[in-house]
Amino acid sequence: MPSYKILGTILTKRPFGESDAMIDVLTVSRGFETFVAKGAMRSRRRLVGGLEPFTRSEFTVYQSRPGKLPIVQDLKVLVSRFELYRDFEVFTRLTEVSSFLAKSLPPGVPEYEICDLFEALLSAVSAGGRAESLVLSFFLRAFGALGWRMDVGACATCRKIPEAEGDYVLDFSEGRLFCPTCRPAPSQAAVVLTSLQARALAALVLPPRLKAGIAVDPAHERTLRQLIDRYLLWHTGDTHPRHAVARGTV
What we know:
Layout: E1 4-16, E2 20-27, E3 31-37, E4 56-62, E5 71-79, H1 88-104, H2 112-126, H3 131-145, E6 168-171, E7 176-178, E8 190-193, H4 195-203, H5 208-211, H6 221-236
Antiparallel strand pairs: 1-2, 1-4, 2-3, 4-5, 6-7, 6-8
């Protein structure tokens, strides 16, 4: 097969044999792909600067025959994003996103919305945005693109944005939020939220014109992350270690 060029962003990099590297790439035209970079772990000159996570490049790859992993022959770095490696917490959170995508996306299937969401996340964090809230918002939007939509911007029944005091209910089986007036009877698939928790969750998905002063305070982020982890566990059986949700005030 002849070589071809493909645009993508590196999700993960790991050793492959003694000197090669295997890279998982979120490509624009073919979705999730895995490439081999020959000699990349031994040589400092081989594809220098272009194989680190979050780097966006144009890859020239060659596949000897169907079923074999494509080999990176050359690349042109478009966006390096080295600034993301300076903060360990930011790097860790973005690595969790990369791992999620690598495990969730089927190989060879274009995922244009996911590509756009991931690039927007990396650009916003690079520009100084708060990584935790941006990552949480990314997960909610990515769930929707993958078919696990969480309808948390408003009550699923009356469509009112969370504002009333009282207990809200988040149904994990359907990904829907219910206000105190419309909430169904509790079930094993549901978790009870305070009004502050419901407002903070809605702030992750509402457009600016509808937030009306609702913000994601850093104090909310731990609980929101636990909710998202539990939702992921419910639908896929896979999650980060933190997935237990305890009812309380954010």
